[in-house]
Design brief:
The structure is a homodimer. With about 375 residues, chain A is α/β, with parallel strands linked by helices. Chain A contains 10 helices and 19 strands. In chain A, strands 2, 11, 12, 13, 14, 15, 16, 17 and 18 form a 9-stranded mixed sheet that branches. In chain A, strands 3-10-9-8-7-6-5-4 form an 8-stranded parallel sheet. In chain A, strands 1-19 form a two-stranded antiparallel sheet.
């Protein structure tokens, strides 16, 4: 049995973090990733409420990489989970999750073999956008004696993966129908070129256009006789736009559950559940320096911000966060500082665990699975 | 005994990677971090040759986070190693390294306690820039029944950590002399505001100015009766500038050993030893998409570039690298692609291991220690 390292509570690498349980959130060894459980539950409930009367959600677990959070989402009605990689899929399956969509093409012998083995016991869906890719997946499934569901990825305007025309979609669907071991279940099209548009009205228009492109493919596939059960799309910033299209059956949004400063202003319905606690290690005039930087907090999308606005973030270096201090009495050497991150998915990927807090006290420590290349598995 | 997870060859999380030994570099499961051993050795030899007639080097191990590389550097004459965090220091000490400079202030009870415990068996140096910080370090050393060497950090123009005037340096030195358990050994001043200046002549002028500021502090400290044995400074892009100052006794350069596209043009004496191998997972018209993104390859400093220039990097997303293909016959689905990273230190921090290659064949797998917050230790 293959089990992800982080998911074993007895795993030795996990021991130092367990000692945090019972502490106040400001007494953690820093840097520490902090997850506010009540905000997390509220974000999950807000999305569950919306999806009850619209498309379902199969939330993207690449954001949180955490089996405990995935279970809360499924308990609130999620149709399963979405992941980005085979290793995330395997880690989540080993943790007991099922109905897992890998929203990417899978290439490479080891990854295909591992996926097909896991597919004997767990229901997976995998994106495909080429005959060569589908053929390799078919071979892996046949070798493992299993069948794997596939979604045709459609490029809805992002110019990344996916087939680009309804004609290509039909020709790929026809090729898929001739391959054993894989079963066409539907389509997916992620409007990644839309999600960061700050103007909500424009974002809605662009999202609607992207979904028109996706549904055009669906209709032509259906006219050609292919059954399209699943139509998957949508990010956190567009969930209520793509999800409002009656032909979209499920959403892939992920960030909504943790949130960050990049997405916060675009979807005020969801609140930041994730923060990083740091400690002032140096203070000189109006500069305070915290004991962590980009090796613990990803900066790709947005600028971090202090929970208590006694300073602003001037810069984040590899091992330092530099603050411009407004309140001179604050932020002396040794003082704890809590920060809302700019980019939650990348930050989670840099950390070992969540320190889960309720009423400011650490109540649990949840491991982060399949970080980085994600291959660290116990044989 | 506490041992870092990654440094145990028997550690279960390490098993899948060991299976790569013997493969061709293009047959690795992707994404894979590849380290060319002959280029690595040449970079180490180039620096060793220069330092034989100038300042010594105590190379920064935050870049590589790898005990095997640190041992090669020490074998080539390094005076020890430099690290950024207590967890890197402890991991390296457990792996047998000695004379370890933590080039940052250390704050927080657990980190101070762990450092002081380790200092019973390993020689550490720690940066200090405040009486409060030095006092906490002194208490930790006394509790552990040991003594820890300290360097006063001087701000040489970066406006980050460090005391900012010779007067402050003298007053801190006087305070240190009244604290038990810590011993003033010298000063450090990192010219981080200089290292990315592209114009070599201007960079040299700025580096010289920064060193003048540092040496002014040294001279005033010496006149006040403090013995300054160690004067530490210098990055990869300025090693021959700061290291040319006769009062600088050692360099902290780290990137030179791996290199990346950000630093490559500034110091052509060192060549890229580090690459990432990916696989084309999607191909459409002139777009090829690789099976990894910013969760495996850090983008903070520079733009990645293909080893074989059959395409250029258009964008790097969280889980995808998008290429603009020039040679249409290349980069079909399933093809391996090797990329020189834009930022080696951040990229290493995202990965589990190095796949070490000689003559294009994997000869060993070296673990990466103390990633992210770095606290995953085996009790």
């Amino acid at each position: 049995v293959t089990t992800p390292v982080g998911d074993l509570r007895s795993e030795s690498s996990f021991i130092p973090y367990r000692q945090s349980v019972g502490r106040h959130r400001y007494e953690l060894t820093t840097p520490a990733l902090v997850l506010d459980a009540s905000i997390l539950r509220r974000n999950i409930a807000t999305m569950a409420e919306w999806t009850r009367t619209h498309a379902k959600i199969r939330p993207h677990a690449k954001t949180h990489k955490c089996a405990e959070i995935a279970r809360l989402q499924v308990a609130a009605g999620a149709a399963g989970i979405t992941v980005a990689t085979v290793w995330e899929a395997v880690a989540m399956a080993d943790a007991g999750l099922d109905n897992i969509l890998i929203a990417n093409e899978v290439v490479g012998k080891e990854k295909l073999t591992r996926l097909a083995q896991a597919a004997r016991e767990t229901n997976f869906l995998v994106a495909v956008d080429s005959v060569a890719g589908a053929d390799a997946l078919s071979h892996a499934a046949l070798s493992a004696g299993t069948r794997i569901g596939v979604l045709i990825e459609i490029d809805v305007g992002m110019r990344r993966g996916g087939v680009r025309t309804p004609t290509e979609a039909c020709s790929l669907a026809a090729a898929l129908s001739r391959l054993a071991g894989i079963v066409l279940r539907g389509v997916m099209g992620f409007e990644g070129h839309v999600v960061t548009e700050p103007n909500r009205a424009l974002r809605a228009t662009m999202a609607a256009e992207a979904m028109e492109r996706l549904i055009a493919c669906v209709e032509i596939l259906e006219r050609a006789g292919f059954e399209i059960e699943i139509v998957s799309a949508g990010g956190t910033n567009t969930y209520d736009m793509t999800g409002a299209n009656p032909r979209v059956t499920e959403l892939q949004a992920g960030t909504y559950v943790l949130m960050d400063t990049a997405y916060g202003p675009l979807v005020p319905a969801f609140k930041p559940a994730l923060t990083i606690l740091g400690t002032v290690m140096s203070r000189n005039e109006r500069t305070a320096v915290l004991d962590f930087g980009t090796k613990v907090m990803a900066m790709d999308l947005g600028r971090p911000a202090l929970v208590e606005p006694c300073a602003t973030v001037r810069a984040v270096h590899e091992e330092h966060t530099l603050l411009d201090v407004q309140d001179d009495a604050r932020l002396r050497v040794g003082e704890a500082v809590e920060i809302v991150v700019g980019y939650c998915g990348g930050t989670v990927n840099l950390n070992d665990v969540y320190h889960v807090v309720e009423n400011d006290q650490v109540v649990d420590v949840w491991p982060i699975l399949a970080r980085g290349p994600g291959r660290s598995l116990v044989a």
